[in-house]
Every structure is written in structure tokens, then in C-alpha cells.
Amino acid sequence: MIRAVIDVNVLVSAIIGPLGHSRQVALAWESALFSAVTSAGIIANLEEKLSLERITKRYTAGTPATIRWMQILLSAQAELVLVPVHERQQVTGDPEDDYVLATGRIAKADYLVTGDKGLLDLSQHEGTRIISPRDFMELLDQHRANR
Fold it and tell me: Which residue from 25, 60, 78, 124 puts its CA 20 to 30 A from 106's CA?
């Protein structure tokens, strides 16, 4: 089964936007079309981002039911990996991005799904392909068609 780390920006987009590729990624995850991998730092970062004024002011930050849905997905349908401090390599210059890359590397994830241009420009990191939500959905569709 495909193993993927879902970046915080995709998780936030899936919560605040009922349409779009980020929501489709979350729905595919919920349907067990791939195995999601996460870490405590990604979960904490999600909670932090959802409480930012620029998010809460501009969006409703999702309904309580949508936020709870994502929390359930993270707690019940994602493999949680430990990312020790010594495993966080400086790759991008952004500690949050470096943490997400470390999560993918430690988990031996096939993909990191992100909307972050800096991460997308890397295209891969230590065996983990870095792709957009749109490209990931196309890949899942191809994978299902080939089964």
C-alpha cells in the first residue's frame, strides 16, 4: 500500500475547503486508498495553524465536525512516527519543512503530499517523492486502475 505523509498545508486546506484536491486527498485517506503517516509535530502544527488569526478571520477554520473528522483521521487512521531532535536535518532552512521531511524519511514514506512550493521544488528527499495534492490524486487514480 502507498505510504504518504500529508503536509499541514494540505490538512488545513482539507478542513477549510470542502472542494479541491486537498479535500480529495483526505477523503481518499479516509477510504483507506493509501496509508497516511504523521508525527506529533505535524499534529501540533495543524492545531497551531488552525488557531492563527489570519485563518480564523478569513475562514471559519472548518466546522467543528470537520475539525473533529480530521482529528479522528490523524488519531485513528494514521501511523504515528517519532521524530527525535537529532533526526531533524537542516535541508530547507525552514524548521517546519525540515520536520515534515524528517517524518517522511523516518517513516520511509513513498510520498510527501504538499502545496509548499519550496518542498515541491525538491521533488524528492531521501527516497520520498514530493508531490502536490493534485498529482497525488492522479497517482491514486492510476494505482486503482492498474489493480
Answer: 25
